Amino acid sequence: MLDCAIIGGGPAGLSAGLYASRGGLKEVVLFERGLPGGQITQSSEIENYPGFYEHGKTGMDFMDTWQEQCFAFGMVHRMEEVKGVRKDGDHFIIDIAGKESVEARTVIVATGSTPRRAGVKGEDELFGKGVSTCATCDGFFYKDKEVAVLGGGDTALEEAHYLSNICSKVYVIHRRDTFRAAPSTVDRVKRTANIELVTDTTIEEIVGDAMGVIGINIKNKSGEVSYLEVPGVFVFVGHNVNNAVLKDESGEAICELNENGQVIVDLNMRTSLDGLFVAGDLRIDAAKQVVCAAGDGATAALQVISYIQEQA
Question: Which among 30, 42, 200, 226 could disulfide-bond with 6, CB atoms 3.0 to 4.6 Å apart, if both were Cys?
């Protein structure tokens, strides 16, 4: 039986694996069907992780050493897909696609969330080459330049305001004439001089060349098409929470979720199900930053060690 099964190989999962294995647990297995690393491996450059500042280093470069460090302390990576988690008495059953189930004393789920794509022409081809879903990660690359933000919710307007402190101008493209964001957020954006709200408008195409994004074609409600020359497009149309492994065969969650499908945890990353912990973007109020996810993973692992000691 495993001491700890970790599901998800991003920064939260890898940090959990490091702290759990280095903390003395002997059977720590990380389940990730692909190579560990998570969403950050798609970033073209990392500048905002404390202690890591080397110009030109990509997200893939950044995560390489994490894997090596975890494996050095005994964490095992199984490149397998977890279909579900269920509790059986005082332990958990991990159901693996096409293979026998695995038993574990504790489970840390760190499957994260996936930014929704807008489905705009050119978006997929230019993702990571001028199309981004993280202003904190990539905003500085557009210092003193003009950028476009797609979306009309709280995240879109909050990130537009963040970008306004870096960029010379921010165009907020929204398909409606009203915003879903909180009134105070809308008011703050409207009072920001270098943010232009482009409402009743959709992005028809993100245009680019071999170097990346060069502009966008937009269409207003009258059908008029125009062109904005911008080197960066930030898409904020929501996140899909990757919580499928926490649902049983009937679709019911095995622990408490909020209305958005995020897992409700306390400050120790404990869920409502004893022995089950969640870390990273999957949890409520996640900041969706690597440094925060890493902290979550470490916290969850330390709590797992305490939990197992208490059960002994």
Answer: 30
The pLDDT score that the predictor gives to residue 254 is: 98
Instruction: Decide if 255 is catalytic.
Output: no
For residue 92, what is the enclosing H or E element?
Answer: strand 91-96
pLDDT of 41 over the 80 cut: no
User: Which member of 4, 134, 167, 255 is catalytic?
Assistant: 134
137 classed as catalytic: yes
**pLDDT at position 158, please?**
87
Give dist(CA 194, CA 170) in Å, integer. Answer: 6
Architecture of the domain defined by 131-235? 3-Layer(bba) Sandwich (3.50)
User: Per CATH, the architecture of 2-115+239-311 is what?
Assistant: 3-Layer(bba) Sandwich (3.50)
**Quick check: is 138 catalytic?**
yes
The share of the chain scoring above pLDDT 70, in percent, equals 98
| Per-position DSSP letters for 47-59, written without gaps between them | --BTTB--TT--H
Q: Tell me whether domains 2-115+239-311 and 131-235 share a fold.
A: yes
Q: How confident is the model at residue 64, as a pLDDT?
A: 83
Question: Is the confidence at residue 135, as pLDDT, over 70?
Answer: yes
